[in-house]
Amino acid sequence: MAGSTSQNIAPVIQIYDEHNFFDKEGFVHVFFPFELTTIFNFFVFAPLLDRLFGLGLEKTQEKLDVHSEKVKCRVKHRDMSDMEKRIYYGLVKYPELPDYKIAEKLSTTRSTVMKMRERFYAEKLMRTTRMVNMKKLGLEILAFTHTKFNPKKPIYKRVECIKKIIQMQTPILNASSDLESVMLTPYRNFEDYQRIHNEITSLCVQNEFLREEPTTLLMSIPMMTIVKNHTCAPLVKKILEI
């Protein structure tokens, strides 16, 4: 796996270097092996909307269990038939199409597509996610934060801090290991970011959670150009070797 990862990244680094895209820090890799990773949020926008509009509905942090199967990344291998692979790929590639249209594209029947869709959902091989248009909501900043933690403070010792992050910071992507985490969080503006970021960082410092100051990359949402917007079809095609 490590060799494959290095082979995949090397050409990307070469392209960036050839076009002078690097700053003095160069290319930073952050790896999260699934068996050692906890994902507290993977593009679920409900907590963010609850914070933005003050709805008082989301109590996700109160139900947090760091040992739950809902947040732990248990790797499971499932063999698929050729037909299952084709339909799975079709459902991912054409999420907006009804089953009969997907069936036409894949030269199969509507009932086959419908049955396999139900099976994939039942086995939690896929899910439906409703994406938020951050520009239309008037959000101005998207922050990507990489945090390194004190080795003496693994996830189970940081639970209360994690609950605070889920409640206050509401990242739309939040993946963590015992030693580091990455988060992707939209904010209304810089003042909104600064207030929440400072409070969370102060909490972490007080509890000696941090190994060093978190690294945060701020991106302007109004000026942002989306290169790939949650398009999983190429990845699915590669993994399933279609």
Secondary-structure blueprint:
Blueprint: H1 2-18, E1 38-42, H2 46-53, H3 82-93, H4 99-106, H5 110-122, E2 141-148, H6 159-169, E3 173-176, E4 180-187, H7 190-206, E5 215-220, H8 233-240
Antiparallel strand pairs: 1-3, 2-4, 2-5, 3-4
Helix pairs in contact: 3-4, 3-5, 3-8, 4-5, 6-7
Summarize the structure.
This protein has eight helices and five strands, in the order αβααααβαββαβα.
Instruction: Give the helix level as a range of percent.
Output: 25-40%
What is the average of the pLDDT values? 89
How many alpha or pi helices?
Answer: 8
Instruction: Name the CATH class of the largest domain.
Output: Alpha Beta
Description:
Helix content is 39%, strand content 13%. It has helices at residues 2-18, 46-53, 82-93, 99-106, 110-122, 159-169, 190-206, 233-240; strands spanning 38-42, 141-148, 173-176, 180-187, 215-220. A five-stranded antiparallel β-sheet has the order 1-3-4-2-5. A hairpin with a 3-residue loop joins β3 and β4.
Features:
single chain; 242 residues; alpha+beta; Alpha-Beta Plaits; Arc Repressor Mutant, subunit A; 2 domains; five-stranded antiparallel β-sheet; 39% helix; globular
